[in-house]
Design a protein that fits this description.
The complex is a heterodimer of chains A (326) and B (304). Chain A is an alpha/beta fold. Chain A folds into three domains: 166 residues, Rossmann fold (3-Layer(aba) Sandwich); 60 residues, no CATH class; 63 residues, Alpha-Beta Plaits, CATH 3.30.70. Chain A contains twelve helices and 14 strands. In chain A, strand 1 and strand 2 form a beta hairpin. Chain B is mainly alpha-helical and 304 residues long. Helices cover 68% and strands 4% of the residues of chain B. Classes of the chains: A alpha/beta (326), B mainly alpha (304). At the A-B interface, helix 1, helix 3, strand 6, helix 4 and helix 5 of A face helix 1, helix 7 and helix 8 of B.
């Protein structure tokens, strides 16, 4: 017993190690005759990982399998190097889970509910109560924490679900459709909380969502699933870096001369309208060069924006192209 | 995640031992259950028969009281196996009523509100969940059945002397085993029904139906086929059989039947099912309940 206690403590107090957050090793899941997940492979290491895919792609099943709710039919996966089939309990002691559907215990005040969840995670009763209060203040339910959960609005229930997922201070948090049903202010608050947790560096986050914008705002890595397979893996941070030199210019003046000068600089360009030019800068070319040639040709640059492929573009490409891998 | 800091913070304090976590469920459940004044009144009322039993034992040994009452209580109410068995039987009915009050909402409420994933995504297994929910009922029923009965047995032993204690140790065994068998059966049945029927009132009605309908049906079988084997489908008959077997008061049934050939009435001896059959049936019911619970208590139901 003492050994188990020490082991648990050790797991909780370990710093974030270099093992991948999630290591998918040929993971397949089958329900009866239906193949839900098929041979998923890859390593995810980001602080915030987005799971994207159309309805029925297998996002929630993947999360449930990682949580140990479903047995893999073949293959396995590891969370921080721990096998999901053999180390279920140690894994569950370091994760938090916010389910998609309404999930709570009826006839309980919110603070009582969150405290119960903290105690079930192994926190002693007094400390659990303290952390329940802290978690509820953190998510913004401090004033409403003594109210019964049944009386909460949908947005408040979402926040209560987030509070129970983080009350025990997990290293990895699974958020399944965290912004579902939220009005714009509540959605903004939820995304801000997610970013805060991500930026604290204390926990990694996996967000499953079909709202591309939400994922784009929070995540560094994206795994797009289609028909139970990995359609695309995308490191958004790298994407952002690699597309830095893709510019959209809004100009007034002698555009043909200006675009000719751009070509002479060795840059690719495309004229998208009378006043708009897309430019891909080459190595050694700076933005100031664009201003210089614009000055030489008496062209005004009224607007200059960095552009990159949006997540929507990446997602749509993934849906068209079929299967990919990490 | 301190209130004043408003930052996310991991927990690095001590953890509770794994084995004790199932006890979190009854602790929180009792907070809810004992909020009801009606339940508290019923819980207190369950101790009245035990008080009467204690008074009977006391009077049995109080010479002054016997003299005042001018009755030979020792003759009127001997303290033996039948005495304890009667009270055990009475408490068994109260235990059933208490189970109807406490048992049905325990799992049903969690299933109705999709709470199981929240329990099971933590270092808390399905068996710990089931055991935790069962222990809510088990502890309450123990408090009104075998625990006070054993205390009264010790009280009687204290008043009667050590030789009575040693020669009647089998009674303590009977009190413990018969009560445990019954409360285990009630607990498993109530939790199984709770896992199957999400509506509390319907679950309570189903539990009552499970108690009454097989008893009536079994009695009909007994009457039609002139047998006692119909009782094996009645959980109350199983309990009585097991209890009387343990207390050593098990007897074959005698019934008066009409002899149609002569038109007269005659007694015939109907052999009741042996006690081991009752134990076997009890085992089968418990196994079936556990099987159903293991199917129903899952984080998510998979539709294939």
């Amino acid at each position: 017993m003492v050994a188990a206690l020490k082991e648990d403590q050790q797991i909780v107090s370990q710093p974030l190690v270099q093992a991948p957050v999630i290591d998918l090793d040929g993971l397949s899941v089958r329900f009866g005759r239906r193949q839900i997940l098929q041979d998923l492979r890859g390593q995810l290491r980001g602080r915030a990982i987005g799971l994207l895919g159309p309805n029925g792609a297998g996002k929630t099943t993947l999360i449930h399998t990682l949580l140990g709710f479903h047995e893999p039919s073949t293959g396995t996966a590891r969370i921080f190097g721990m096998d999901i089939q053999n180390d279920t309990k140690p894994i569950r002691s370091i994760i938090g889970y916010m389910p998609e559907r309404d999930a709570f215990i009826a006839k309980m005040s919110c603070v009582h509910f969150v405290r119960l969840m903290a105690e079930l995670s192994g926190i002693p009763s007094e400390a659990a109560l303290e952390r329940a209060h802290e978690a509820l203040f953190y998510v913004g339910l401090g004033e409403a924490r003594y109210r019964k959960l049944d009386t909460y609005s949908l947005g408040m229930k979402q926040l209560a679900k987030l509070a129970q997922a983080i009350v025990h201070g997990p290293r990895l948090i699974f958020l399944d459709e965290p912004t579902n049903g939220l009005d714009p202010p509540a959605r903004i608050r939820m995304l801000r909380l997610i970013r805060e947790i991500r930026d604290s560096g204390q926990a990694n986050i996996v967000i499953s969502s079909h709202l591309l914008r939400d994922v784009e705002e929070c995540c560094e890595e994206i795994l797009i699933l289609r028909d139970g397979r990995v359609a695309t893996y995308c490191n958004l941070e790298e994407e952002r870096r690699s597309n830095r030199k893709f510019l959209v210019l809004e100009t007034r003046g002698d555009q043909p001369a200006f675009t000719k000068a751009i070509a002479e600089l060795g840059c690719e360009y495309a004229v998208t309208s009378d006043h708009r030019v897309k430019v891909v800068l080459q190595e050694g070319t700076e933005i100031r060069d664009l201003y210089r040639i614009a000055g030489e040709h008496e062209v005004q640059i009224r607007r200059l924006n960095f552009k990159r492929d949006s997540l929507e573009d990446i997602f749509l490409k993934a849906m068209e192209n079929g299967h990919g891998s990490l | 995640m301190a209130v004043y800091e408003h930052t996310y913070r991991r927990y690095a304090g001590p953890l509770t031992p794994d084995w004790s976590r199932f006890l979190i469920i009854p602790r929180h459940a009792y907070r809810d259950i004992f909020k009801s004044k009606l339940f508290i009144a019923f819980f207190v009322a369950c101790f009245i028969p035990l008080l009467i039993e204690a008074i009977a034992i006391y009077l049995h040994h109080n010479v002054n009281a016997l003299a005042v009452m001018k009755v030979d209580v020792k003759q009127l109410l001997p303290i033996d196996a039948s005495f304890f068995e009667w009270f055990i039987n009475f408490q068994a009915y109260l235990a059933f009523l208490m189970t109807m009050l406490v048992g049905p909402p325990l799992v049903a409420r969690d299933l109705r509100n999709n709470a199981l994933p929240l329990y099971l995504c933590r270092p808390f297994s399905r068996s710990e969940y089931v055991f935790g929910k069962m222990s809510v009922v088990l502890m309450l029923l123990s408090a009104i059945t075998w625990i006070p009965q054993l205390v009264l047995f010790l009280f009687q032993s204290y008043l009667e002397g050590f030789s009575w204690f040693t020669s009647n140790l089998s009674l303590a065994n009977a009190i413990l085993l018969s009560s445990l068998a019954w409360i285990l059966l009630l607990t498993l049945l109530s939790q199984t029904i709770s896992a199957l029927v999400k509506w509390r009132v319907a679950a309570s009605a189903a539990l009552l139906g499970l108690y009454l309908i097989p008893s009536v049906f079994g009695e009909v079988i007994n009457q039609i086929f002139v047998t006692r084997w119909g009782s094996i489908i009645s959980i109350d008959a199983l309990r009585r059989s097991i209890t009387s077997g343990l207390f050593g008061t098990f007897v074959e049934s005698i019934r008066h039947v009409t002899d149609w050939d002569t038109g007269g009435v005659r007694d015939i001896v109907l052999l009741a099912p042996p006690v081991w059959v009752s134990w076997f049936m009890l085992f089968l019911i418990c196994a079936a309940c556990l099987g159903i619970l293991s199917k129903r208590v899952k984080a998510y139901e998979v539709v294939t």
